[in-house]
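Please, structure for the following, as tokens.
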Amino acid sequence: MRHYVFIFLLLLQSAILSAPLAHAQRGLKRATTAAQQDTPTVASQDTALVAGQDSVSLAAPQGDIATTIKYSARDSMRFEVGNKVVHLYGDAKIDYGDMKLEAAYIQINYETNTLTATTLPDSTGKDTGTPVFTQGPETYAAKRIAYNYKTKRGRISEVVTQQGEGYIHSEVVKRNESNEFFGLHNKYTTCNLEHPHFYINAGKIKAIPNDKVMAGPFNLVIGDIPTPLGFLFGLFPTPKAKRASGVIVPSYGENTRGFFLNNGGYYFAWNDYMGTRLTGDIYSLGGWNAEVSTDYVKRYAYRGNFRFTYDNFKNDEADVIGGARTTDNAFSQLPSSRRTFWIYWTHNPVTKPGRGSFSASVNAGSALHQRLNYNGSTQYLSPTFNSYVSYQKTVPNSPFSYTIKASQGQSTQTGNMNFVLPDLNFSMSQVSLAELFSDAPSTNKWYEKFTLTYNVRASNTVSNLQPARTRSDFPLLEAAPADTIDINFDNLQRLWESGEKQASHAFGIGLGNYKVLRFFNFSPNVSYSETWLDEKYSFRFNPDSQRVDIDTTNFGRVYQYSAGASLNTTIYGTVNFKEGKKVEAIRHLVRPSISYSYRPDFGDERFGFYQRTLIGADPNTNEAIYQDLGRFRAGLPSRGLSSALSFSLDNSLEMKVKAKSDTAEAKSEKVSLIDNLRLSSSYDFARDTLRLAPIRISLNTKLFKFINMSFNSTLDPYEKDTLGRSIDKYYFDFTKGKLGRISSAGLILTASLTPEAFRTDEPAPANLPSLEREPFDPLMPEYVDFKIPWTLNLNYSMSYNRSFGLRGDRRLTQTMALDGSLNITEKWKVTYNATYDISNQNISYANVQIYRDLHCWDMSIGWVPFGMLRGYNLTINARSALLQDLKLTKRSNTGYNY
């Protein structure tokens, strides 16, 4: 409705009125002769009727017309020369640039300077050919259009215009020379039907294109039933392709914190690339919440979002009793009053070759903030949150790259926080030693296969929770309890000093890959790593105090190295069956592999990593071994010589079957029977006893094309004494098929079922979009697909652990989870999610969601029957994002935060 200076004015002023009438007739005859060699029939002196005329094109003369004007009619075009009127009948069309008009009938009157477009009745009397005007992305439809191209005023009857996601139905619209239009008896809706299910009824409106829409008294009408919801006037900004600042209207409701106004505030549109939302919540029972959120983007460079939330939580009942308690009142289950905060920041760069990239993912704050202000069960149940900020770059035309990073992790259950700051990493990808030290061309010598990789990482790991020191760790040392350091500005130095500062160097030396006896792959390897630390301890027994004294130096160094080799090959065999059988062949693939590794005993005194210290007068019975790297136990080499031979055996089994197609050209199909069956263990020659490591067996396969099975077990090969300790005597007996005692086992079965999985030969998709949504989310997600009749995802997991001896026991844990959806009708859908603990015989978590598609409205019902999240929710809301606040919500007061 904003662009009614369209093609009709240009057509009449430039193509007809600017030239003499005789010139217009001669131009029309020439165009007609070019398209059709028939002579037009002249009905009278004043009226000319051109029959069979399909289209006419007028080349653009010099003047107001910028391009060629094309108009056509399916039935006929009639010219009344004396009355200066042009009639276009049947699918009348006019094209001019990006503007287009279509109608059953179009009349151009250059005597009164008006044009008219209307519908025409068909043989049954039904109106057809509604006038439709299109200019660029905008489309207008009306039953009748009358326009004066001289005064630039118009009148449109029964018009429907589309403005973004909304539609405006007007009984009469008038337009003035300033391109403003005035509507009488208007309906605004987001329903795209001719007779909408709901609308906002306004008697009068005035629209200023690209500026605003003003309305008189209006009210909401649902199902043709007027409601009292409305106001005396309305003012709606409608800027085009321009970001604008403005007020954010809050939503209202009720939960355990009382009645609330939610997400009200102001939006600041700084420019086309950055905007900030300043919003807040307020609750009738006390407390408030404030949030600042900024979105930013730079095309072809980066985009991100930064959000800071501060919550002043109030719970007067818990404050009175001095803490939380469990009663029937859900609000009393919440903690006492407190103030919390949360920082959320994401920054995603566009990676470009040869240039560094900065990225960030920060999700951190107070321990209870996410549980008090959660948006769904996933956030509420998350035990940990992790964050990082990093800069990474690969040096062009070189094998070198580096990363500068800071990371943080926190547990919402224990309150423990770990920081790695800074975290510097420099690495060199695999390079050939021959190319590294010489520019000579390769001669394919065996030593030219040697390769080298290098990586160094310097970091400082800080934790607010210092573990306890016990006497079992350090005999005769004073036991130290666990200590928690509050994270604030006063404790920054203490946190920094308690951090584990170290630099780790790792060298990977590849000695090539060689063929042995034609069928075996032989790969030797050497590795070396070294770690620099900021502390090193030395221990000395003080006979006077009968204590062990500790001396600390500011630098420590630890290193370790090993060497080894591996040998592997592939063996396969195929069994073919007779023609005409369903099964054509079975193929067995075996991949045996053995490897040997050697590592010296780094507990030997010559390395200096472990220190033998007297703790009494008798050196034979009062001697202890201390590791001299203090709290750096993770990087300390293990004690004892290792000379181990490892072996593994991988198997896969597949079957070749005849295709179901009856054609002779049909190809055979391969069906996997066993994806992988693996058996592995190792034998350490350097150990005095118990040289054979536990035997591990794992199996992965697919059953019936839609069930994935994963199985693993660990077999203990040794006999046990009465205390459950292993003795140097083998338990297995190959003659009886015994490989060992099962000490642990696990089984996981997953299945994703859809109707397509049974109708086709293709397996079910591995990652179907989950239909579960967060409970009590007020808006229906866009990915709920009513076209899928049903889905069912099943997950069964079993874990078995056994301890031996007189007090040995067996522990079996089993859980069953299912989720899916069911379409009751084309418009009703039910989704469900439940987890059942078979061992404890209880339901861990469950929720049910019911959706109803109301065309332009959505209805959802959610129910969580168990746990802190228990309760129900009923929401009816308009589907369009423009009317997201037009909703009705009813929540129960029995569940947490509801």
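Helices lie at 7-17, 21-35, 316-321, 369-372, 377-381, 433-437, 492-497, 755-759. The mean pLDDT is 76.
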